[in-house]
Design a protein that fits this description.
heterodimer, A: 692 residues, seven-stranded mixed beta sheet, six-stranded antiparallel beta sheet, elongated, B: 613 residues, mainly alpha, two-stranded antiparallel ribbon, globular
Chain lengths: 692, 613
């Protein structure tokens, strides 16, 4: 899961610095109205310098520009990572020469000329020229370029590991690949588009938050513009002249300090960083909207196999019928499973080997005929012809009902003890496989699902977060209920067909709930499309990958839980920084109001008036107070970039507890912190003689 | 703080809180059409109204139509009231022969009463005929109150609904509120007030012989009734003659004064008791007399005072409980109730504390009785002033302008936070809704979910209208205040200069933009500028929140309701209550802190230094 994709931080920062200047273009600034106000303020103060180029005004002007640049820098930093990743991917897309098979001969053609259906040969060291399906051979492929996983993976013809992605490198053997996507339409192209295009649209929450922030900005502009008349009115009544500081730079400084620049400047960085965090966990989101929806998910639909339980069911016990020796049953079971390549079949062989030291034997030969599993018979097994004086044997294993029918058709008796054992196993959540030889029932094999370690705790955490888990399984209701209880899911759908999944999603959605699911098969595609968060596995079919709004490159079903957490973190970061930004204003008032009006109603020259009492930070002078507030306001953006990129700490707790914690940190903290830093900046400014 | 005072305070809040669930449930039943004990008598009246007006009680309205109905009713009410006020000279029931009102005063008054603000730029007994007071103004005291409640009912009802476009029928809500709540409660309250000595009479103003005749000096008038003046040298504050550039004394015209013996007094009366009960109960606050409930005939005894005080709070308190029942979340309602009560009691505490502090300007004499009635005393004056501003009532029984600066700050603060410490009937709760939504919005994000309120996801539409509901009234207060202090038309009306003058204007626009109607006194608001500007502020303060509330719930009613889970932000409990309180304080403080600094804070500092305005 760790990404091999390395970020070169110094070049990232260099690029971000350059970009933050480029983003001063009005075309970019207008996109963020809060920062646009700061940008306009910077221009106005710059123009004001032609009128009054005092040291104070120059500093205000510079810091307002810095505020703009810092916000741009935050955005550029967040974008940089994704851009670097996309560039890396784009390099892989550079044209390669493909060895196309034409009438059995290899012909070199540029990869861009490959058409769907073409067959190409790949040998060790070759880049796979296009997305495709292995139709011949088996090979190890290094997919680290897209997944970041350095260990090569096996790709072979047939089955569900046949998909190869253009741009990955074959490291061993020779395979023939049938092209499934032409240039411009490949998975790599889609990945690049996802990484770069995820920021195209604002998410619903971003729009709503933006409206709140812009309204606050408008309000503060009104508040500040209403100040000079009221102040001058007082000045007149006090019989003083020129004692209130209401010059344009001061008013603009006050506006910039009050409007929510901290969150305004970091808002887009937070959004991009959320998508980026997903990317670093090898999940690609098609839109920021999908990431946001992940935070809102109420119900997780999880496939039992692979997510809740380890892979497939495994044989754990042999239960012989009365009068049948245990090792006879084990031997028959192993024989019947030798040719069974399913994980269940293998586990039977393994169990027999481990428990009874029964070795797999050479079963090839004309005497042995394997009977593969078929949907009609719902049994598999082996027929051994009579040889060396031994009678012919027909061994079958399969579901209870089918084996019963088979036994009875051979005139045998299906003993009650076996029926009882089957029922007992089913009730306990296991899967019974009945083994029979000719007309005799030998006994039952217990197949059990192994619930993944730690998954129960994970579900309990989800429950405290208010997220319900629904397990999807093809098992019968009894089995499903037992596993559901063991794993601690809230609900399950047994004997689920793809339509059931879809129906469940629709039903939950009609109750206003948001659903997340993960899937890989073509028959998952409708559900993936219907779900609010549909994560398709990279190893899955093309249909599934296109239906979902996220792709998990690791094809790890447990990833869904992480996706939800990242979504929540994204929203929390926005909320926390909004709260922090607004809470900061309190201290700025205490810095700037006494600075502007401190000597109003002073009774003697050099004296102070009543509002000077509000200078509770004992800032040195009006100039240093205003400058300190503006500098703090600018620097806090830079200071919070790491938080914006990393996201606030997420813990799986109840809503009220999280609110209390974050309110304390970002609300109360947001009120207190600036008092300390404004004072420090003030001391520093005076020490280096930048302000009196 | 005497035992007597404490008993009064405990009784006041105790009775108010005890009545909340009772009255709240009654109101809930009325609006949902359930049978109450009043139905046997009043249901025929309700049906008669529907029959006579052709209202179909089963008809449902979308939020836009509901809003349109409110606007239509208010505008028609405004036009008819303005017509009455400008023609009262020729209309009946005018025994005192009151003249027609000026266009601007009529404009201001008509909006003020139809919008439930009840700001008065006039003294009732001096300019209003009985016809204007009862048929004109009193009707709107009933209807504007009932309209406010109706809107809240629509809001609560809509929040409970899911996946529908309609939110109820304004005419039905208005009719039910008027018939079952407003009129019965008014009658209930008018009876003890009349018993306590509040007049309920239609005859002309009474004339009484004074026990102690006195002499006063009045300007001498010529035959045409104009004051006779003479030219005298102008003097400055210190009594020195003012000289012009050439050293000549500057001359000014001064009226010639003559002594006049006063031995009789005209005592204005009228059907005051019914007017008074309605004024207090439905957060109107517009008094029959100019000095409002400081007038002995409007508020004659301590018991009358207590009853009138109680009348201020009962319906606003009950509306919160009714809202809880309507949305089906009583826990949430009690949480809001606690927040409102907390802010209310806190402002009362601060004001009372400030009011008993010594004032160096008046030789530290306490209690401060300037502007207060002897029979009310300090505590009752402060409790009234705080109640009438925390709750969008606006009546007074003392002059807030004479309170200590920090005490006077509290009524102003209550007004500026947006009239939500119970607030006006209906509007207090739906204005609170905006703060709740902003809280839910920020807090919701902070817990990592798209913000949800009562099972409904909040989107950009809701965010937009919620900030409009809060910020427009704030802007409608700040902008004209700033204009007034630099315009001659603004400054010439002020009784005081400097911070106190600013406070007067800020207070006036604050109350107008929040539809309170309380007056700080000291400002002569009956000028074209103030009448019109305050009138406009009243319109914005009334319709911005109504439109916002209806727009929000109209949207939410059409959404699906999601059952709450452990991950949903709980809208009850102390965490939410404190967060909501914080949001309310921060929003108001950030908006008005600079203005308050230049007004009451500076004044307080100067007063401590012995300087007043």
């Amino acid at each position: 899961m760790s990404t091999s994709f390395k970020i070169n931080y110094s070049s990232l920062i260099r690029q971000a610095v350059i970009d933050s200047f480029k983003k001063l273009h009005p075309r970019d600034e207008i996109k963020n109205l809060v920062m646009f106000v700061v940008w306009l303020g910077s221009i106005l103060t710059t123009l004001w310098l032609f009128k009054d180029c005092s040291r104070f005004n120059v500093q205000i002007c510079l810091w307002l520009w810095f505020t703009c640049l810092f916000a741009n820098f935050a955005e550029a930093m967040a974008e940089g990572r994704g851009k670097a990743h996309a560039d890396e991917l784009r390099k892989m897309r550079t044209k390669t020469v493909a060895k196309k098979l034409v009438n059995g001969k290899e012909v070199s053609v540029p990869s861009s000329e490959l058409k769907i259906g073409d067959r190409v040969v790949c040998t060790p060291g070759d880049l796979v020229p296009a997305d495709g399906e292995v139709v011949e051979g088996i090979a190890t492929v290094d997919e680290s370029a897209i997944t970041g996983e350095s260990a090569p993976v096996v790709r072979e013809s047939g089955g569900d590991r046949s998909a190869v992605t253009g741009g990955t490198r074959v490291t061993s053997d020779r395979i023939v690949v049938r092209v499934t996507a032409e240039e411009g339409n490949s998975f790599l192209d889609r990945m690049i588009a996802m990484i770069e295009g995820a920021r195209r649209q604002l998410t619903p929450n971003e729009i709503a938050l933006n409206i709140v922030l812009v309204s606050l900005t408008a309000l503060f502009i009104v508040v500040v513009l209403a100040l000079p008349p009221m102040a001058l009115f007082n000045e007149k009544a006090a019989g003083q002249t020129d004692v209130v500081l209401t010059s344009l730079p001061v008013l603009l400084a006050l506006i910039v300090c009050l409007i929510p620049t901290t969150i305004g400047g970091l808002l887009s960085a937070i959004g991009i960083a959320g998508i980026d965090r997903l990317m670093r966990r090898n999940v690609l989101a098609t839109s920021g909207r999908a990431v946001e929806a992940a935070g809102d998910v109420d119900v997780l639909l999880l496939d039992k196999t692979g997510t809740i339980t380890l892979g497939n069911r495994q044989a754990t016990e042999f239960i012989p019928a009365p009068g049948v020796a245990l090792d006879v049953l084990a031997d028959a079971a192993q024989l019947a499973s030798l040719a069974d390549e399913t994980p269940e079949g293998r586990s039977i062989v393994t169990l027999a080997k481990e428990k009874f030291n029964l070795r797999g034997r050479d079963v090839a030969g004309p005497l042995v005929k394997f009977v593969p599993f078929s949907a009609q018979t719902r049994m598999s097994g082996v027929d051994l012809a009579a040889h060396d004086g031994k009678a012919a044997r027909q061994i079958r294993k399969g579901a209870d009902a089918s084996v019963r029918a088979w036994v009875e058709s051979h005139g045998g008796l299906y003993v009650n003890e076996v029926v009882a054992a089957v029922e007992k196993i089913s009730r306990a959540g296991g899967t019974p496989l009945v083994v029979a030889e000719n007309e005799n029932v030998l006994g039952v094999i217990l197949l059990k699902d192994i619930v993944k370690g730690g998954i129960k705790e994970r579900f309990a955490q989800l429950r405290t977060m208010g997220i319900r888990t629904v397990m999807i399984t093809g098992d019968n209701p009894l089995t499903a209920a037992a596993i559901a209880a063991e794993a601690g899911v809230d609900d399950f759908i047994a004997q689920a067909k793809p339509e059931d999944k879809l129906a469940r999603i629709r039903q939950e959605q009609s109750g206003g709930k948001l659903i997340a699911m993960i899937g890989d098969g073509t028959n998952d595609a409708p559900s993936l499309a219907q779900a609010d968060v549909g994560v398709a596995m990279n190893s899955g079919t093309q249909a599934a990958r296109e239906a979902g709004n996220m792709v998990d490159l690791d094809s790890n079903p447990t990833k869904l839980i992480e996706v939800v957490e990242i979504g929540k973190q994204l929203l929390m970061t926005r909320g926390a920084l909004t709260t922090f930004s607004i809470a900061n204003d309190v201290s700025k008032y205490f810095a700037i109001i006494p600075a502007m009006f401190g000597i109003l109603y002073a009774t003697k020259p050099g004296g102070v008036g009543p509002l000077d009492k509000m200078n509770i930070m004992y800032l040195h002078s009006p100039e240093s107070a205003i400058l300190s507030a503006v500098i703090f306001n600018a620097l806090i953006i830079v200071a919070l970039i790491p938080l914006a990129l990393k996201g606030v700490k997420y813990q799986p707790l109840g809503a009220a507890v999280i609110l209390r914690k974050n309110m304390l940190i970002y609300g109360v903290g947001g009120i207190i912190v600036p008092f300390i830093f404004i004072k420090l900046i003030d001391v520093l400014l005076v020490a280096v003689h930048l302000a009196p | 703080m005497t035992t007597n005072e404490i008993i009064q305070i405990v009784l006041f809040f105790g009775i108010g809180i005890a009545l909340t669930p009772i009255l709240g449930r009654f109101m809930f039943k009325v609006y949902t059409g359930e049978k109450t004990w009043l139905h046997p008598v009043l249901q025929p009246v309700e049906k008669l109204v529907y029959w006579a007006t052709g209202i179909d009680p089963a008809e449902e309205m979308t939020w836009l139509r509901y809003l349109w109905a409110v606007v239509l009713m208010t505008t028609v009410g405004f036009a008819s009231l303005m017509a009455i006020l400008m023609t009262q000279k020729w209309l009946p029931f005018n025994p005192a022969g009151q003249d027609n009102l000026s266009w601007h005063l009529a404009f201001n008054t008509a909006w003020s009463f139809t919008c439930n603000a009840d700001w008065q730029s006039y003294s009732g007994e001096a300019v209003m005929s009985y016809f204007s007071q009862t048929i004109g103004l009193s009707v709107h005291q009933f209807i504007s109150g009932a309209a406010g409640l109706a809107i809240l009912v629509a809001v609560g009802r809509a929040l409970k609904r899911a996946s529908v476009k309609t939110i109820g029928n304004f005419w039905v809500d208005l009719t039910r509120g008027t018939i079952y709540i407003v009129i019965p409660l008014s009658i209930l309250w008018a009876i003890p007030l009349a018993w306590q000595g509040v007049p309920q009479a239609w005859q002309n103003y009474a004339t009484a012989k004074l026990v102690e005749p006195y002499t006063t000096s009045v300007p001498k008038l010529d035959d045409k009734g104009n004051a006779i003046t003479k030219s005298v040298p102008k003097t400055d504050d210190k009594g020195q003659a003012v000289k012009d550039d050439k050293g000549q004394p500057v001359m000014v015209d001064q009226p010639v004064m003559v002594d006049q013996k006063v031995d009789e007094q005209i005592i204005p009366v009228g059907p005051v008791a019914s007017f008074e009960s309605c004024k207090q109960l439905f957060t109107n606050g517009g008094g029959w007399f100019g000095v409002n409930s400081a007038h002995p005939l409007e508020n004659p005894t301590p018991l009358a005072n207590f009853l009138e005080l109680l009348a201020i709070i009962i319906v606003p308190m009950a509306q919160v409980f009714m809202f809880g029942l309507l949305v089906g979340n009583v826990k949430h309602a009690w949480c809001i109730f606690a927040v409102m009560l907390g802010l209310y009691v806190a402002s009362f505490g601060v004001a009372w504390w400030a009011e008993v502090q010594p004032n160096p300007v008046t030789d530290n004499i306490v209690p401060h009785m300037e502007g207060k009635e002897q029979r009310e005393g300090v505590m009752n004056s402060v409790l009234w002033g705080i109640s009438a501003t925390a709750i969008d009532n606006g009546s007074v029984n003392s002059m807030h302008d004479s309170w200590m600066p920090l005490a006077g700050l509290m009524p102003m603060w209550n007004i500026l936070v947006g009239e939500i410490e119970f607030g006006g009937i209906g509007c207090g709760m739906y204005c609170m809704l905006f703060h709740i939504l902003i809280t839910v919005f920020i807090a919701g994000l902070m817990i990592g979910r798209t913000p949800e309120y009562l099972g409904k996801k909040l989107d950009a539409w809701c965010a937009t209208w919620a900030v409009i509901g809060v910020l427009l009234p704030n802007a409608a207060c700040l902008i004209p205040t700033a204009m007034s202090v630099v315009m001659d038309a603004g400054t010439s009306s002020m009784a005081n200069q400097g911070p106190h003058g600013l406070s007067e204007v800020l207070y006036a626009f604050g109350e107008a933009a929040n539809n309170n109607g309380s007056a700080f006194a000291g400002l002569n608001a009956n000028t074209p500028w103030y009448d019109v500007a305050l009138g406009v502020a009243i319109i914005i303060g009334r319709f911005a929140p109504i439109a916002a509330a209806l727009a929000i719930v109209g949207r939410l009613a059409s959404k699906k309701t999601v059952e709450p889970s452990a991950g949903t932000l709980p809208t009850h409990g102390w965490t939410f209550g404190l967060t909501l309180t914080g949001v309310i304080i921060i929003v108001a403080a950030l908006t008005f802190f600079p203005a308050l600094c230049l007004g009451p804070f500076i004044e307080h500092g100067l007063m401590l230094a012995g300087r007043t305005f």
